[in-house]
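input
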Amino acid sequence: MRQCGSALEYASDELKQDREVVEAAAFQDLNSLRFAGDKPRSDVVLVLALVEEHGWYAVKRKAVAPGLIPGDVLVDPAMTLAAVKAGDPDAFKFAPAETKSDVNAFKKAIGYGHRSLKYAATNVKADRDVVLAIVSENGDSLEEASDHLKDDREIIMAAVKQSGLALREASTALKKDREIVMQAVQQDGSALQYAAEELRADPSMVMVAVRSAADGDIRVLQFAADSVKNNKEAVLEIVKINGMELEHVAAPLQHDTDVCLAAVENDPWVMMHHVPLELRSNPEIQRVAFRQTSK
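output
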């Protein structure tokens, strides 16, 4: 078995129930566990030894997912801790209800780097200390937090610093908070879509968002209020940051020579994609596009 774990398939039923035999086989080849008897597969100590040998994720993939490990083993606190230590966001999936509602268990898990509220009980999702610690490292976990904590300014600020898109979960009042929204769009420009209308109408806020998203594929001007898209002064500054934002400029300004010139100056490929046909023959715009593509 120590040389070829899969040989367990041909062992007698008695040997397939023998802990030492199964351990030797599974240490050599974790897949051999599918040939083991019920008794060794129900042995928490053996399963934990396999986790130590092969790692939690290998055991999860080859033994837990196929249903080789019985439920009474998976609910053992030691198994939950092994998953937590491995950084598995689903670590509490198989934990018993009392563990999922144990605030101290989650605080201990946080100490090992656990950053998910996915399987937490309602009381844990309502615990301010737990939620603050988790969203500070995984802002997207804010989605699982209790609603009253989504109106907690410190928690929302911590979440958007880590993931700007966590602004989506903030209360209506905090989506109007300029400092929070500014932090969110600095972290991820597309968070602008979740800001209050008055902040999406603020040219300076939109410019921060555009600058933040300039290297990505999302054009955030689409999330701005129409008043910004129609503001030539603001639009000129925006296309100087990211020429491709010309796509979402108000129609009249898309046909404005100054705006198109500024966009092409920033990115000559705008000429092909978003500059209107009647302006593509403009000599000045053509010169700028040629100069930029020749760099």
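quick obs: Residues 185 and 209 are 5 Å apart (CA to CA).
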